[in-house]
Amino acid sequence: MKMKRFMFMLLAVLLVVTMVPAAAFAADSASGQVEIRLKTNSSTVTINGKQSTVQAPFEKSGTTIVPLSIITKAFGAKLKLQDNKIITLTYNNKTVVVTIGSKTVKVNGKDQTVAVAPVVIKGTTMVPVRVIVEAFGAKIGKDKKTSEIVITGTIAQSGTSNSGGGSTNLDPDYGKTKFGDSYYGWTMNYPPGLVLVQQSDDGTYAEWGSTTSKSSVIVSTEHSADALTSSEIRDKITLDWMYSDEVVVDKRSITVNGQSFEKIVTRSSKQGMLFEYRAIQKGETLYFVMVGVVGTDKTALEAYQSLLDSFTPSFNKADNAIKDITKVKNGLMSINNKEFGLSLKLPAGWYGVKDSPTPQYVSENGYFSFSISSLQAQDTADQWLARVQKQIHDDFLPNYIKNEKTSSIVMKDGNALVLSYEFSYDQKIWYTANEVFLIAGSYRYDLEFNYDSKLGAQGDALFKSTMATVDIDTAYVEKNYGQIEDEYDNVDRTKVNTKKSTTYGYSVDLPAYWFGMDTDFNKDSVAYSNNHGHMFIQVYEDIDRASASAAAQKGLKDDGYNVSEVSTTFINGNAVQTLEIKGELVQGIPVTEKLYFFENKGNTIIFQFGVNEANATPSQLNEYNAVLQSVKFF
User: Fold this and answer.
1) Which domains, and CATH codes, for the chain?
2) How confident is the model at residue 558 (pLDDT cuts 50, 70, 90)?
3) Distance in angstroms (rounded) separating the CA atoms of residues 569 and 576
């Protein structure tokens, strides 16, 4: 999985008030009145008749989300940042507190819940507009003639006492001359005027932003067991960090203080920014240090050359001038996921899965996940465990599961049940799964800790020591969460949805729980997945079934696939050509693929079903067969 974590394009929270020229937001100096006009999905905003370009507002769950900079600049509100994510806005004698990723907004000390949490998108902090401007006493409506959202109010009074905002010294590390990470082993001079605004749980990513210079500095590390060539390091920069609109203006190897770096400089006219990337490998660690700055001429990067030159892949613990930002203490990193009320400690080397809707952390040999769901009436942990246990047996063939047992465990938030077992996808590599079922108050907490079975007693000890550190803020969950359905437990797998293609004249019944990836049935390709397999539909226009089957067989054989079976069958009175590809590997897992070639109105429609061999249970195969038998043509 490609983890593109380039945060120059996702700039710091601290940049929220500097993304647009201040002149564009000036209120009417004579009247003090403010009129903002904007449209969702449009990057043009008009403030008192003056237009400017911003990150496009959008609508989600009936809520309009706009750049926070529009509000702060237009109304003259002050801003203060806390913990790199809590933003306090003060306007006259009113205070509004928003938190990135949280749906709770505090207005004059009272909590309000919004439908959509603030989020940072491509360098701009986006917030629900209504709750803030109405707190400021402004009005929000819609111009029916232009379809514009119109916000009217007054600029903040000068000289008003605002006890909650506007601190100019947002730099908690003032006085330090260097920063670094003692665990990952790097050091760099401290960039004047910048503060730490983003850091990953595992400490492999750190970003500094500015309220004045619009610049951003990133240091990132990753493990690389292979010694990479200069070309391979450059490819890593290009593929993992650069966006498609960046044009390379400089690419070369450089030597700084006796150390060889790969350097790439790019320009993005669309973003109006310049970027400099440097990378170096030391041992099994690949280091990236990067700068992004607003500008069109590469001379804009000159002010950062001494800073970039100061980076070194080493850390001197005796140097008191270094601000150590490591997340690792005594070999453990502390994780505090406030949105889910989850705290725990994991060994160094684990990292969070980006873009996961729930907390997930992985290492080379392990996996941890956490989810919350509502407790249903009369349900118990024993019943919950029994359902999951049954589902495992429905999903795995008997010889791919072993050493199954249940137990209990005492956690900080109560007693929980544990279902442990070993599973494999190829009967060669085995994994130990420990699924923990905890009920506290109105909610269920599902924690899963898996590891490579070769770890044996070491893996079991790690599971127990990790569970001992888990602390769930159940009071926070009770207060801030509503009804949460479990997407896996007790799901009705017999429920189907009928899908039709008017373009190609067919319909098919699909299990409602399947996940759609390409779901437009009027296009020539459709893709769905389930827990342990997938289904693809591909239409070849103006090609008969026999020709399509022959071409597919040839193409598969040319690509090295072994077509183990070719036959003809009848489905609902339709002659169907079938191909089977058995034992192919998908991400190292043996998979059986079966293709069914239908013909309708001169077109060939191929239904392709794939299932992991370990999961080719009667229930899974019956599910695929039911889909196949439901195919109808019109």
Assistant:
1) 13-154 (3.30.457.10), 178-324 (3.40.1000.10), 330-480 (3.40.1000.10), 496-633 (3.40.1000.10)
2) confident
3) 5
Residues 107-121: pLDDT tens digits?
999 999 999 988 877
Residue from 197, 37, 40 nearest 116 by CA: 40
Q: 303-332 burial, b if ≥16 CB within 10 A, otherwise e?
A: ebeebbbbbbbebeeeeeebbebbbbeeeb
CB 74 within 8 A of CB 34: yes
Contact of 277 with 251, CB cutoff 8 Å: no
- Condensed to tens digits (0 to 9), the pLDDT of residues 167-201 reads 323 334 444 688 999 999 999 998 766 778 888 87
pLDDT per residue as tens digits for the range 385-398: 999 999 999 999 99
Strand partners of residue 595 = 579, 608
pLDDT at 192: 66
* Residue-by-residue DSSP string for 192-255: TTEEEEEE-TTSSEEEEEESSS--EEEEEEEE-SSPPPHHHHHHHHHHHT--TT-EEEEEEEEE
Encode 254-276: b = buried (16+ Cβ within 10 Å), e = exposed. Answer: eebeeeebbbbbbbbeebebbbb
More confident residue, 588 or 434: 434
- The residues facing 589 across adjacent strands are 586
Long-range contacts made by residues 304-310, C-beta under 8 angstroms, separation at least 24? 304/191, 304/215, 304/217, 304/276, 306/189, 307/188, 307/189, 307/191, 307/217, 308/256, 308/276, 308/278, 309/256, 309/257, 310/178, 310/187, 310/188, 310/189
Structure confidence by residue, pLDDT tens digits, 17-73: 333 333 344 444 445 788 999 999 898 899 888 888 888 899 998 899 998 888 888
Do residues 337 and 420 make contact, with C-beta atoms less than 8 angstroms apart? no
489 contacts: CB under 8 Å, gap ≥ 6: 373, 384, 387, 388, 391
120 within 8 A of 9, measured Cβ to Cβ: no
Q: Where are the beta strands (DSSP E) in 92-168?
A: 94-99, 104-107, 110-113, 119-121, 124-128, 139-143, 148-154
β-strands 178-181, 322-324: how paired? parallel
Q: Are 616 and 589 in contact (CB under 8 A)?
A: no
